[in-house]
TrEMBL record:
SUPFAM superfamilies: Bacterial hemolysins
Protein name per the record: S-layer protein
Transmembrane segments: 444-467
Entry keyword set: Coiled coil, Membrane, Transmembrane, Transmembrane helix
């Protein structure tokens, strides 16, 4: 009974010690810090840990590089706090912007971690959009450096954060207002409010639908939900692009405006389609990779409205493959046709060759008889040729003899002429003597002698001519 009386307090004490030991062994270390730090701010961490233990703290940058470590002691109540380091005034290679990790632990092996963001100081930027009557414009798209950041609410406002810097802020209001741009300088953390007063244009234009073939399965897709002012239109080559445009003058639809699209040096006119209630611009797309800016222009009653964007043409490999396959099919048909023609020609050639062989045999027989006749005729011609040659030889001999005789006669005539020339010279001397003697004769006598001399000369000339003719 005494054992039972004292056993319960002992068991309770043992159980209390066990529970205390278990609770001590399951004490968890925690760590907390601010969610975001900016340049120039100091990082502070705190948490809970077993009482009176050393707590190791390490900080790693977004590249998982250790940038800071320290050891602090927890209090008797099991809490700790540590002021770690101060971020520089701007990001650096050691302290880049991004997510940092804080890891804590004790010598007993308890560990934990948390994260925080290191971000540049930012300013609250508020954009206000009003028309010239100071009425808020709802639904205006706000772009910062060509990136859409939001749309104005019913109060014509949009707020967002940006770090220090210079920004090109563009407001694109709905029709019939025209876009407006400003260059805004931000010095964080000072808030900035920019008011845009958008003007109302007389002639407005809206692209209501864009249809194009896609590059995956060559199907027509609707690109209407794409913001073509900031997003390029992607089309596949060797296809067609359809752009639907509505125009408004003083807020009312216009169906007789001049609408056209200019791209890659070509102009394509829009035609108003009553069934769709819009101008439809049909653009043939060549099969070449190309990126071009385009401009859609609407003209009406002396007013002009423009819309610009980027058109990216993608190479249509499927079309090329289809064209090649079609060509291959055509070539196969041509090859089959040529094969049939070759077979037909082969059969015709076999028959023609047989006919040619028979004709050759017939010609060979005919030529054999003709050759014999030709040989006989050639033999006859050869004998006639010998006879002609002998006759010609006799004639040539006779001619040579006659030529020799003529040459002898000519030689004789030449001698005679020489003799005559001598006699003429002698006669001339005699005439001169006679002239001397008859110088004293009367005129009548002188004339008779002259006539006699002339007759003599004529006779001599006649004789010379006779000799020359004979020669």
């Amino acid at each position: 009974m005494k054992f039972i009386k004292y056993s319960f307090p002992i068991l309770f004490l043992i159980m209390t010690m066990l529970v205390t030991s278990v609770m001590a062994s399951t004490t968890v270390i925690t760590v907390t810090t601010a969610a975001v730090y900016h340049p120039g701010q100091t990082v502070v961490v705190e948490g809970t840990a077993p009482p009176n233990v050393e707590v190791g703290i390490s900080v790693f940058n977004p590249n998982d590089v250790l940038v800071y470590s320290t050891v602090v002691n927890s209090t008797s109540s099991g809490t700790y706090q540590a002021v770690l380091f101060t971020f520089p005034s701007a990001a650096s290679s050691e302290y880049p912007y991004g997510t940092y990790t804080v890891k804590v632990g004790t010598s007993t092996g308890f560990t934990n971690s948390t994260t925080f963001e290191f971000e540049p100081l930012q300013s609250l930027i508020t954009v206000e959009v009003f028309n010239p009557s100071n009425v808020a414009v709802q639904g205006a798209n706000v772009y910062v450096n060509s990136t859409l950041v939001g749309t104005t609410n019913s109060s014509g406002e949009l707020s967002f954060y940006e770090p220090s810097g210079t920004y090109d802020i563009m407001v694109v209001p709905p029709s019939p207002y025209v876009p407006e741009s400003k260059v805004v300088t931000v010095v964080a953390p000072t808030p900035v409010t920019e008011k845009f007063v958008v003007q109302q244009e007389q002639l407005t234009m809206a692209i209501t639908k864009v249809l194009a073939y896609n590059s995956s399965d060559y199907m027509i897709v609707d690109l209407t939900n794409v913001n073509i002012q900031t997003t390029p239109i992607y089309v596949v080559g060797n296809s067609t692009l359809w752009i639907y445009v509505n125009t408004f003058f003083e807020g009312k639809p216009v169906t007789n405006a001049t609408v056209s699209l200019l791209v890659d040096g070509m102009t394509y006119s829009g035609v108003y389609n009553t069934s769709v209630g819009a101008y439809v611009i049909k653009v043939p797309i060549p099969n070449v990779p190309l990126e071009e800016s385009y401009q859609i222009e609407a003209m009406y009653s002396g007013y002009t409205s423009n819309e610009t964007g980027t058109l990216i043409m993608q190479y249509n490999q499927a079309y090329i493959i289809g064209s090649i396959e079609a060509k291959v099919s055509e070539l196969q048909k041509e090859v089959a046709y040529m094969t049939s023609q070759i077979t037909l020609l082969r059969s015709e050639l076999v028959g023609n060759i047989s006919q040619l062989n028979s004709n050759i045999t017939l010609l060979r027989d005919e030529l054999s008889g003709n050759v014999s006749e030709l040989k006989s005729e050639i033999s006859s011609l050869e004998s006639n040729l010998s006879l002609v040659e002998s006759e010609l030889h006799g004639n040539v001999t006779a001619l040579n003899s006659k030529i020799t005789s003529l040459e002898s006669t000519i030689s004789t005539l030449n001698a005679t002429i020489s003799t005559l020339k001598g006699e003429i010279g002698s006669l001339t001397m005699k005439i001169n003597n006679v002239n001397t003697k008859v110088s004293g004769l009367s005129t009548l006598t002188y004339a008779g002698l002259g006539l006699a001399i002339v007759g003599l000369i004529i006779a001599i000339v006649a004789l010379v001519l006779v000799f020359r003719k004979v020669k």
